C-alpha cells in the first residue's frame, strides 16, 4: 500500500495531498503522513534514541567495580610518577637540556594529548553519568581507569618539554631547516609548533561537551587514536 501511494504521488508531480485524495476516492486508506515526511520538506520522525552499546564505540554502559583493576591502575600511575620525577630532578639540578631530545619530547606530548582525547571522547557518556551521580563511586572508578592513566601521563610529562626548553643554551647555535638559530630559539619555535596542533585537536572536543554526547564524535576519536598509533611507531 505504501509503495502504491508513493507511485501515485510521483504521478501527481510529488503532490502528496493530491495523491492522498485520489487514493481516498478509490476507497483506499491513504498511507500514514509520516511516510511522506521527506516529501513534505519537514522532519516527521522523532529524533533517534541514543545508540545502544552494540551500535557505538562509545562506552555507554558502566563496568562493575573490580578491585583488581583498580590496584593495577594505581600501580601503573605510580610507575608513571616514578618515571617522571627523575626527569624533573635532573633538569632542575643540572640546569641543562643535555641528554634530552626536544623533538622526542614534542612528539611524546602530541601522542599523549591525542591518546587522552581519544579516551575522553569514548568515555564521555560514563563521565557524565559519574558527574550526575547515576553511578556508584566504585563503578565510576572502574569504568574510568583508562582515562585516569592517560590523563596522569599527559599532565606529568607535558611540562617536561617546557622545562627542558628553559635550560637550552642561548649561546650554542644549530641549523634547523636551513636556518641557524640558538638552541633556545629553536626550542621556543618547537614549543609552538607542537602546542598549536594540540590545541587544534582539543578544540572540537569543547563542542562535544557543549552538545553533551559522544556519538557524533566517534570518527574524531578514531582519528586521534590513529594519530597516537602513528606517533608511537
Automatic annotation (TrEMBL):
Top-level lineage group: Eukaryota
Protein name (Swiss-Prot/TrEMBL): Predicted protein
Native species: Micromonas pusilla (strain CCMP1545) (Picoplanktonic green alga)
UniProt keyword list: Membrane, Transmembrane, Transmembrane helix
Lineage, opening ranks: Eukaryota, Viridiplantae, Chlorophyta, Mamiellophyceae, Mamiellales
The keyword Membrane appears for this protein: yes
Transmembrane domains' residue ranges: 71-89, 101-122, 191-210
Amino acid at each position: 500500500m505504501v509503495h502504491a501511494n508513493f507511485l501515485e504521488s510521483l504521478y501527481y508531480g510529488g503532490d502528496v495531498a493530491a495523491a492522498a485524495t485520489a487514493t481516498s476516492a478509490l476507497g483506499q486508506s491513504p498511507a500514514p503522513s509520516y511516510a511522506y515526511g521527506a516529501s513534505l520538506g519537514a522532519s516527521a520522525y522523532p529524533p533517534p534514541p541514543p545508540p545502544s552499546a552494540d551500535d557505538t564505540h562509545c562506552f555507554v554502559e558502566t563496568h562493575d567495580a573490580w578491585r583488581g583493576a583498580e590496584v593495577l591502575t594505581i600501580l601503573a600511575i605510580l610507575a608513571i610518577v616514578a618515571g617522571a620525577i627523575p626527569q624533573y630532578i635532573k633538569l632542575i639540578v643540572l640546569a641543562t637540556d643535555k641528554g634530552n631530545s626536544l623533538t622526542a619530547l614534542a612528539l611524546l606530548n602530541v601522542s599523549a594529548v591525542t591518546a587522552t582525547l581519544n579516551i575522553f571522547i569514548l568515555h564521555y557518556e560514563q563521565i557524565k553519568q559519574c558527574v550526575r551521580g547515576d553511578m556508584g563511586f566504585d563503578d565510576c572508578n572502574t569504568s574510568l581507569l583508562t582515562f585516569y592513566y592517560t590523563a596522569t601521563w599527559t599532565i606529568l610529562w607535558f611540562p617536561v618539554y617546557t622545562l627542558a626548553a628553559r635550560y637550552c643554551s642561548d649561546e650554542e647555535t644549530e641549523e634547523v631547516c636551513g636556518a641557524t638559530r640558538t638552541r633556545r630559539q629553536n626550542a621556543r619555535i618547537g614549543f609552538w609548533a607542537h602546542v598549536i596542533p594540540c590545541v587544534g585537536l582539543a578544540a572540537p572536543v569543547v563542542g562535544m561537551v557543549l552538545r553533551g554526547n559522544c556519538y557524533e564524535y566517534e570518527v574524531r576519536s578514531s582519528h586521534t587514536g590513529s594519530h597516537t598509533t602513528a606517533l608511537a611507531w
